[in-house]
Amino acid sequence: MALTGFEQYNEMVTKFERSKLFLGKFNEFIKIIKIHARSNPITSATIEQLLEIDGAQARKLTEHARAKGIRVGSGNKGYYYCKSREDTQDTISHLRERAHKLLWLASKLDYDSKKEDPQMRMAV
Fold first, then answer.
1. Which of 8, 24, 57, 91 could make an SS bond with 53 (beta carbons 3.0 to 4.6 A apart)?
2. Rounded to whole angstroms, how far apart are CA atoms 75 and 99?
3. pLDDT tens digits, residue range 71-101?
4. 40 and 80 Cβ atoms separated by less than 8 Å
5. Is the Cβ–Cβ distance between 49 and 14 less than 8 Å?
6. Ramachandran region of residue 35, left (φ > 0), alpha (ψ -120 to 50) or beta?
7. What b/e readout covers 83-118, taking b as 16+ CB neighbours within 10 angstroms?
8. Which of 41, 73, 44 is nearest to 57 (CA)?
9. Strand, helix or coil at 38?
10. What is the pLDDT of residues 9-52, one digit of tens each?
11. 108: helix, strand or coil
12. How far apart are CA 4 and CA 97, in angstroms?
């Protein structure tokens, strides 16, 4: 069975997370984040360039740091270390907005998929 694009992406990210390289990149990532405040965030592109990783790997490092309780903030301008409760709350709001948008998109797809579509019946 051939892998889909998402399965290939997921497999690649999982291999990175389980690799010996991950811990070293993670430690470098934390050092970089901790020198960036909300007033001077670092972009994903810069993180990718500095660590020689791709966007998916940068997101995995961010996810891992947050799961470990490291206050990695994010916004439209990039990533930063949350130095205050306000910084943390802004990041929580940003994440919730993204989550709500994704849930809305999923519900829209679910609703639309339940409508009878003559073209879809013909394609099957």
1. 57
2. 14
3. 999 988 999 999 999 999 999 998 999 999 9
4. yes
5. no
6. alpha
7. eeeebeebbeeeeeeeeeeeeeeeeeeeeeeeeeee
8. 44
9. coil
10. 556 556 666 667 788 999 999 999 999 999 999 999 999 999 99
11. helix
12. 28
Residue recorded with tokens 């879809």? 120
Instruction: Provide the 10 A C-beta neighbour count for residue 76.
Output: 6
How long, in residues, is the chain? 124
Round to whole Å and give the CA distance between 79 and 36. 8
Give the tens place of pLDDT for each residue, 26-37: 999 999 999 999
Pairing of strands 78-81, 72-75: antiparallel
- Compute CA 120 distance to the chain's CA centroid, rounded to the nearest angstrom: 32
